[in-house]
Automatic annotation (TrEMBL):
<feature type="binding site">
    <location>
        <position position="467"/>
    </location>
    <ligand>
        <name>Zn(2+) 2</name>
    </ligand>
</feature>
<keyword id="KW-0479">Metal-binding</keyword>
<dbReference type="InterPro" id="IPR005259">
    <property type="entry name" value="PriA"/>
</dbReference>
<feature type="domain" description="Helicase ATP-binding">
    <location>
        <begin position="213"/>
        <end position="379"/>
    </location>
</feature>
<dbReference type="InterPro" id="IPR042115">
    <property type="entry name" value="PriA_3primeBD_sf"/>
</dbReference>
<feature type="binding site">
    <location>
        <position position="470"/>
    </location>
    <ligand>
        <name>Zn(2+) 2</name>
    </ligand>
</feature>
<dbReference type="GO" id="GO:0006302">
    <property type="term" value="P:double-strand break repair"/>
</dbReference>
<keyword id="KW-0238">DNA-binding</keyword>
<dbReference type="GO" id="GO:0043138">
    <property type="term" value="F:3'-5' DNA helicase activity"/>
</dbReference>
<dbReference type="Pfam" id="PF17764">
    <property type="entry name" value="PriA_3primeBD"/>
</dbReference>
<keyword id="KW-0067">ATP-binding</keyword>
<keyword id="KW-0547">Nucleotide-binding</keyword>
<feature type="binding site">
    <location>
        <position position="449"/>
    </location>
    <ligand>
        <name>Zn(2+) 2</name>
    </ligand>
</feature>
<dbReference type="Pfam" id="PF00270">
    <property type="entry name" value="DEAD"/>
</dbReference>
<dbReference type="InterPro" id="IPR014001">
    <property type="entry name" value="Helicase_ATP-bd"/>
</dbReference>
<keyword id="KW-0639">Primosome</keyword>
<dbReference type="GO" id="GO:0003677">
    <property type="term" value="F:DNA binding"/>
</dbReference>
Length: 732
DNA sequence: AGCACGCCGACT
DNA sequence: GTCGGCGTGCTC
């Protein structure tokens, strides 16, 4: 600080929620203190916004003093730690977004920056009322037993079984005095010694390996890999226990869908208290409390979706990323990031271990483990006597389904046997509705969406044709809109409704349940159906992707994959990986009880290496092939682009380029650059704003590619702005 | 005239 | 990201 600073206005750099590449400078009022990390409120245009005081004195890039506006308020809140500030800066640079927009993700808690108001409470005094009643006796007895403890007004009334007026009367008579209670913790403290399991063999070894990493108090990454049912959760719970014993905080990240009551219940059974939850639809009050108490360090364990990574932990000792391969970790709006990768960075900056957990790790994580960058801890066997199902491919050319059907005799036979034994079967098909395409046999007209040109999917149960891209729907017409012919519309291909129809035709007595995300009755109904399945109230379950994740079907002994070829040829650069993960997950649903179980995978390409790897359970072959393929690819550290379209930042020309790409029908994995030849260079130099159209599942990966491109030819002005958009049609 | 909508620049 | 200003073009 210069010598004359006492006379000049004090200024501070503040990150504000704008796309500005730099912090703004604000004047600090007389007597205000605000070091780096302090959370403040500042005026921005016509509004007041939260901001965080950034590092650097702010005197060099001198702003026009006339523009300087004063900091409105300095919050009484723990400042963001140096780790947290470095993390914000790192994420901003890596994702090509403005640091203020990253800070915004940290500060997106409406009113958590002021200390929680104390709760009004009552404490017993020496005085007693003149008139005593039975109700008053009860209250005084209860309050007397727990001598130093204070009560809330309603809590005391409730516990004593009296009305509020009894308590109020006693307070008025001077038997209680009003005191201020500290704010309630959102969750009780978890106890690492509560419900400690007696792990044996491989589980015990794995748990020790993780606990050692936690004890080392240093950055490390471990891949915890194990088949479904091997007890991965129990093992990483021991790493959490180790961090708790060391007095540090823990973040457990889960894909939103896995943040279920059953996870919370398991956690509570192990630690005697639930973790603090964090996800997008947490009630605002809880949200504020969790944020505040995480910042103060009183919340010890958070279980959250990807946004939990931006909570301001006071002393982070461990990050667990469960289901690390899950695509839900990719945030694909505003700031584009993959929370799994950012978790590793956060752990590095916080000098703590990260544990990535999966039965089917992503190819890049598996590669990092094989290369020795990550420690690799494996649980190859199922826990207790549960055995993995025997999985076999069904060659549909050799045992074709009956005309008009989609289930091969082999699968139907296995279903019949399973039914006879009184056991459950699951048929998996990743397609909602009755049929994915409807056409007119008279003129060949195909029903397509008027907005986005995707085929309309027939939903026979609702009597509608639906577009799964934009939500457009129309009733199924009786005549062809093109040629007017009646009764010539045919459904092409299967959806789960159609599979249900075929199943009921073969097994009219069976109790069949159909599960999909668009189920009538919503999430509530879905949960009820899941419960009735667990109770054995269904014989055959037919479902989409939804059945692969989260829920367990304890009685299941047969899994049939209706069409394994479905996901393999859709142009997604991760098609092979995703198919492998999905099929492993869905066949892994079977056999949890220890009964003999089977998986049957129907395919027209039984020699396909991905499907063979699924049938043989040969992970090594699968990963070796994928890694080799990625290494040949263009995307760092590896990975391949489906396509890049570089075009001017207006929707019309971007869409024109999308159409051009479709016309060119690119081979999967090719890189295409459309637009002027120098477009990529112009992008790097920041002369224009560009829009990229890429396959929906790969936008976060695309960031990595762009980052490498820009690193190769740095942009001196640092002003490249990239918007990444999806054109769901480009690769169909 | 009145206003809905889209584009553009400023915000410290 | 969010706001206000301003121009265009349409409706009452």
């Amino acid at each position: 600080m210069s010598a004359d600073s006492s006379t000049a206005t004090q200024t501070v750099p503040v990150l504000v929620p704008t796309p500005s590449p730099e912090p703004y400078t604000y004047a600090l009022g007389e007597g205000m203190q605000a070091g780096p990390g302090t959370i403040v409120q500042v005026p921005l245009g016509p509004r007041q916004v939260p901001g965080v005081v950034w590092d650097g004195a702010g005197e060099d890039a001198a702003v026009d003093p006339k523009k300087l506006r004063p900091v409105t308020a300095v919050f009484d809140c723990p400042p963001l730690t140096g780790d947290m500030r470095r993390f914000i800066g790192w994420v901003a640079r890596y994702t090509l977004s403005a640091p203020g927009m990253v800070a915004r993700m940290v500060l997106r808690v409406p009113a958590a920056f002021e200390p929680e108001p104390p709760v009004p409470g009552l404490q017993l005094t020496e005085r007693r009322p003149e008139r005593m009643t039975a109700a008053r006796e009860r209250v005084l007895a209860l309050a007397g037993e727990s001598s130093p403890m204070a009560w809330t007004r309603s809590g005391l009334a409730h516990a004593a079984g009296v009305s509020l007026s009894v308590v109020d009367g006693l307070t008025k008579a001077g038997a209680f005095e009003e005191i201020a209670l500290p704010p309630q913790p959102v969750v009780a403290a978890p106890d690492p010694a509560y419900g400690a399991p007696d792990l044996q063999g491989e589980q015990a070894q794995a748990a020790k390996a993780l606990a050692d990493e936690v004890a080392a108090h240093a950055f490390s990454v471990t891949l915890l890999e194990g088949v479904t049912g091997a007890g991965k959760t129990e093992v990483y719970f021991e790493a959490i226990a180790a961090a708790l014993e060391a007095g540090r905080q823990v973040l457990v990240m889960l894909p939103e869908i896995a943040l279920t009551q059953s996870f919370i219940d398991r956690f509570e059974a192990r630690f005697g208290a639930p973790p603090a939850p964090w996800h997008s639809d947490l009630p605002p009050k809880t949200r504020e409390k969790v944020w505040r108490q995480v910042a103060e360090g009183s919340v010890r364990v958070v279980a959250g979706a990807r946004s939990a990574l931006f909570l301001p932990f006071a002393d982070l000792g461990l990050i667990v990323v469960d289901e690390e391969h899950d695509a839900a970790y990719k945030q694909e709006d505003r700031v584009y990031y993959n929370a799994r990768d950012m978790a590793v960075v956060r752990a590095k900056l916080a000098h703590c271990p990260a544990v990535l957990v999966s039965a089917t790790p992503s190819v890049e994580t598996r590669h990092n483990a094989l290369e020795g960058r990550y420690r690799h801890v494996r649980l190859p066997r199922r826990f207790a006597d549960a055995a993995l199902p025997d999985v076999a491919l069904v060659d549909m050319r050799k045992s074709p389904p009956a005309r008009g059907g989609f289930l091969s005799p082999v699968l139907l036979e296995a279903m019949a046997e399973t039914l006879q034994r009184g056991e459950q079967s699951l048929l998996f098909l990743n397609r909602r509705g009755y049929a994915p395409l409807t056409l007119c046999r008279a003129c060949g007209h195909r029903f397509a969406c008027e907005n986005c040109s995707a085929w309309l999917v027939e939903h026979r149960f609702r009597g509608q044709l639906q577009c799964h891209h934009c939500g457009h729907h129309e009733p199924v017409p009786e005549a062809c809109p093109q040629c007017g012919t009646f009764d010539h519309l045919v459904a092409c291909g299967p959806g789960i409704e159609r599979i249900a129809e075929e199943t009921l035709a073969h097994f009219p007595e069976a109790r069949v349940i159909v599960l999909s995300s668009d189920m009538v009755g919503g999430v509530k109904r879905l949960r009820l159906e899941m419960e009735s399945i667990a109770k054995g109230e269904a014989d055959i379950i037919i479902g989409t992707q939804l059945v692969a994740k989260g829920h367990n079907f304890p009685l299941l002994t047969l899994v049939g994959v209706v069409d394994a070829d479905l996901g393999l040829a859709n142009g997604d650069p991760r098609a092979a990986e995703r198919t492998f993960q999905l099929l492993s997950q869905v066949t892994g649903r079977a056999g949890r009880t220890g009964r003999k179980s089977h998986g049957l995978i129907q395919t027209y390409q039984p020699e396909h290496p991905v499907l063979k790897a699924c049938a043989d359970g040969d992970l090594e072959a699968f990963y070796a092939a994928q890694i080799a393929e990625r290494k040949r690819g263009a995307m760092p550290p590896f990975g391949r682009l489906a396509a890049i379209i570089v075009s001017a930042n207006d929707r019309q020309s971007a869409e024109a380029h999308g159409r051009a790409l479709r016309a060119a029908a690119p081979a999967s994995g090719d890189i295409m650059v459309l637009g002027p030849a120098e477009a990529p260079l112009a992008l790097v130099r920041g002369r224009h704003r560009f829009r990229l159209l890429v396959h929906g599942s790969e936008r976060a990966d695309m960031q990595a590619y762009l980052r490498a491109m820009i690193a190769a030819a740095p942009n001196p002005r640092g002003s490249v702005r990239v918007a990444v958009d999806v054109d769901p049609q480009s690769f169909l």
